[in-house]
Amino acid sequence: MSEETTKAPGSISELEAGMEVPGTVKRIELYGAFVDIGVGTDGLLHISQLGKPNVRNVEDVVKVGETVSVYVLKVEQENNRIALSLVKPPAVSWDDMKIGDAVNGKVVRLEKFGVFIDIGAERPGMIHVSELASGFVNSPSDVVKVGDEVRARIIKLNRKQKRIDLSLKAMEEQAEKPQVPVEESDEGLPTAMELALRRAMEANGQPLPERSSKRSHKRDRRERRQNDLEDIFERTLRSHK
Questions:
Q1: What is the pTM of this model?
Q2: Residue 215 clears pLDDT 90, i.e. is over it
Q3: How confident is the model at residue 186 (pLDDT cuts 50, 70, 90)?
Q4: Which residues partner with 102 through β-bridges?
Q5: How confident is the model at residue 160 (pLDDT cuts 50, 70, 90)?
Q6: For residues 195-210, average pLDDT
Q7: CA dihedral of residues 166, 171, 175, 178 (deg, nearest 10)
Q8: Do 30 and 20 contact (CB within 8 A), yes or no?
Q9: pLDDT level of residue 184 (50, 70, 90 thresholds)
Q10: Residue 136 carries which DSSP code?
């Protein structure tokens, strides 16, 4: 750590998100601690930013008078508010990502259903086995191994579930049209044959047949598989921490 990164700023205008600064704990409340970082306004170190899960008592982690090294999460100059954390913020924030972006990362874990990639975000992204290559992939280990550096494309983002879905296959595709987000689907739209049949029956005054329920059954099965996958995904990430 260089001296420059830990040097205390002189004013709130010098603060930037991600900056590491030294400070002194001045006051403790139930919801967190206020830290003097030398800018004339104490920053709030919220109880959720103490670097330990399920903290019930702030004083179990920091105490009044203690010198700490904190990271700036957010600065609101107009309100003189500074949010701090004991945990270094991720290099890539949710605001930095969008569907279609190409990102670099390192393979950190292999599972039967896919691989997890550290792209510098809050949580690793996942590449499902079906997105590892254009052809059939029997096992993720046939394509990548832990430690490999890869370049992938973001195909889905779920901020609520903190999930990032990536694809290597999309990087290989050279189609000119933009990548279609996986949330979107034209399933359920009538096919060209169905449209032609409908027009013919309407012209002859015949009642239109009801749409086959095969697609709805297929959609239900797909949704069940997706729910099962998301459950496995969450459990895998929890065990990865």
A1: 0.56
A2: no
A3: very low
A4: 153
A5: confident
A6: 64
A7: 40
A8: no
A9: very low
A10: -
Say how far apart CA 200 and CA 213 lie, in whole Å.
Answer: 22
In tens, the pLDDT along 143-153 reads 999 999 999 99
The number of residues in the chain equals: 241
Domains and CATH numbers, the chain: 3-85 (2.40.50.140), 90-184 (2.40.50.140), 187-241 (no CATH)
Task: Please name which of 173, 172, 185, 178 lies closest in space to residue 219, comparing C-alpha atoms.
Answer: 185
pLDDT of 117 reads: 96
CA 184/CA 155 separation, integer angstroms: 11
* Residues contacting 72, CB < 8 A, separation 6+: 15, 16, 17, 18, 19, 20, 21, 43, 82, 83, 84
Name the residue type at position 126: M
* Tokens describing residue 144: 């990548």
Q: Residue 177, Cα to own-chain centre: how many angstroms?
A: 25
Cα–Cα distance for residue pair 2/69, rounded to 1 Å: 13
* Type of residue at 67: T
Cα 93–chain centre separation: 8
What pLDDT band is residue 119 in, cutting at 50, 70 and 90? very high
